[in-house]
Amino acid sequence: MKHFFIDKYSEVKSPIRNLDARAKVIIFFALILLCVTTPPKAFLVFGGYYLILVTILIISRIPFVFILKRTAVAIPFIIMIAAFIPFIEGGAGGSYNLWGVTLYQRGVLILFNVTVKALFGVAAVTLLVSTTPFDELMEGLKKLGVPKVFITIASFMYRYIFVVVDEVMRMKRARDSRNFEGKWIWQAGAIGHMVATLFLRSYERGERVYSAMLSRGYDGEVKSLSEHSISQKDIMLTIFIVSTAILLHLSYVFVKLFAGG
Amino acid sequence: MHHNKAVEIKNLNYKYPDGTMALSGIDLIIEHGETVAILGPNGAGKSTLILHLNGIIRGNGEVKIFGLPVNGRTLKEIRRRVGLVFQDPDDQLFCPTVFEDVAFGPVNMGFTKEEIIAKVNKALASVEMKGFDKRPAHHLSFGQKKRVAIATVLSMEPDMLVLDEPTSNLDPRGKGKIIKILKSFPVTKVVVTHNLDEAAKLCKRAIIMDEGKIVADDATEKILSNELILKKHGLF
User: Fold this and answer.
1) Which residues of B touch A224 (CB under 8 A)?
2) What 3-state class would DSSP assign to A149?
3) Which of B76, B94, B138 lies at the smallest CB-CB distance from A213?
């Protein structure tokens, strides 16, 4: 069956795609960290971060719309958490009156802050995953010192999520072929049975996979060959991007310092 | 070592955790270089028996593989020499890429990087899957998965191949390809199958199992021409 792979565009050739996974992880996480720790009123600085991200996006040749769509996934969460904040009274600053609805400045600022930072984070991670095949990403994280057990769990999850999704689709088809409509409360039981069956099947598969591992000499530790070594060029590029972002982060402080005297 | 038999099983019994007898009183000797088909209806105990051949399951009775009794100390050596291929390739292929799956055995056996790469390339070439090493398993077709699954044990250069339904769910062309590939390996082979045609093509000797017992053991053509016994055990 056809699946939607999270690393769908990871075979698009570009300088970003060829960058070592470690370098990419460091770059994107540094950008996210710097972005979320920037004071909310530093509008220009946020603009700067987005500019860096868009530049990387253009170099990576990933379709713009794809990243936009993926980033939009975060919007419902932002609305759920922060959309009502501007209407809450309080805090310093004034208030605006829009057609009889009062918006408070502090609340608006919080909403802006949450939105800008959340969307940046999601866009950055999407871009990271889109330019890195999953196995390279895992390899990169492992070399950066992420505990092996996390890497193993994530790798297995990624390997078997498609198998499980296939199983769910087959079960759904078989169920719908027997005129299941899924709109009456007494039909909820069928869904419960499906979930239980899926759990049992996954559990049994786990046992079989473990047997297959034992058969090939598994002794409790997943060993692997490390092939990639990070190049001088990758290190330079990482330092360049991260230091640009750090300067951007500090610029706000400097400007305030000089302007404020 | 040459006088040792590939498989020597004496009075093997195995009971499932729920109490049903899966194997009762199995006696089986397989010589070096023999090709043996294990036939039998569903639930006859075929899969349970082959899981004993590399010590995944250890029942009551004596099991010797290449002269080594199956126990904690010999397990590693036995698993290197017995390549067990499971029926569902999604169970056999659990790594992010084909390369890592085929390399899994050799890596666990502690070979150097160059040796491992050479073994992986050789194994993939022998199942006609050269050049697929960077692919994730979920991007392969079912037939390709089946062949890569065989490569994952070939890379350990086993002395005996044990295969659980190597051609199940494949189209005739895929079946033919697997049979051709398997025939090209001159090692001891044990093949579990429902497919009489496949048994005839791959194996000189055939065993019929039913209800946890070996009920027939003879040359494949003799077994296959005995309609009575095939009917009796749901194979015809």
Assistant:
1) 100, 107
2) helix
3) B94
Candidate from A134, A162, A209 with C-beta closest to B96? A134
Amino acid at B2: H
Which of B54, B45, B40, B47 is closest to B7 using CA atoms? B54
Token pair recorded at residue B46: 């075929």
Give the ipTM of the model, two decimals please. 0.84
Task: With CB atoms and an 8 Å threshold, state whether A217 touches B84.
Answer: no
The per-residue pLDDT of chain B, averaged, comes to: 93
Give residue A169's identity as a one-letter amino acid code: M
Structural domains in chain B, CATH included, are 7-232 (3.40.50.300)
Q: Which residues of A139-157 are buried (b: 16+ CB within 10 A; e: fewer)?
A: bbbbbeeeeeeebeebbbe
* Tokens read off for A89: 């009274």
| Chain segment B49-96, per-residue pLDDT in tens | 999 999 999 999 999 999 999 998 999 999 999 999 999 999 999 988
Interface probe, candidates A136, A139, A203, A216, chain B, greatest B C-beta count within 10 A: A216
Residues of A in contact with B136 (CB under 8 A): 134-135, 159
Q: What pTM was estimated for this model as a whole?
A: 0.80
Burial class (CB in 10 A: 0-12, 13-18, 19+), B2: exposed
